[in-house]
Amino acid sequence: MKRLLYILFSLISEAFIPIASQCAGGIWPIQDPTIGSYTVSWRYNPASNTVQFIIQGQAIAAVDLTSTYIAIGWSDKAPTMTSMDVAIYFPGTQIVQDRYSQGHNTPSVDTQQDFCVIQSNLTDKNVYVSFERFVTTGDTKDISFSSNLYLMFAMGPYTFSSNTSRLSPQHHFFRIALQRSLSLINCVS
Fold it and tell me: E strand or H helix at 6, and its extent?
């Protein structure tokens, strides 16, 4: 009987051992009457050493998502647009561009595009995009995800030139920043 109890106890205790390298990720809800309701979420994948981002939301009637960009940016210095790595999603074209901001001008397009779009969908006022990037890319215009970062979210109009396939974001009509830094690759092992 003691042996049977020992075996049973061993099996039960093994079932409750935490799995190594579970990465919780994070969710940032953004709600404002001028834009609608959105969430930005992220999760670190240690197997591929990438961070996957998901932006999803529902715009208010006044926001035309076919001509509005949605941007998230991160900086290891401060929650400002100076020295900020930016991912700009253009729902009307289903493109995510890798850009870099050096101030309050339009972020410049990186020569090395490091985002990989996984899925993108735009239906009326609902938007969804998932994309990923390596933690460290080797690109001087990319900020590594290995340190704590400040996040920023922005939306604004853009134009698209079909002759040149150029996307031109204009000044944002909405912007919000997290005032505290956080880790995008926070994992427990």
Answer: helix 2-15
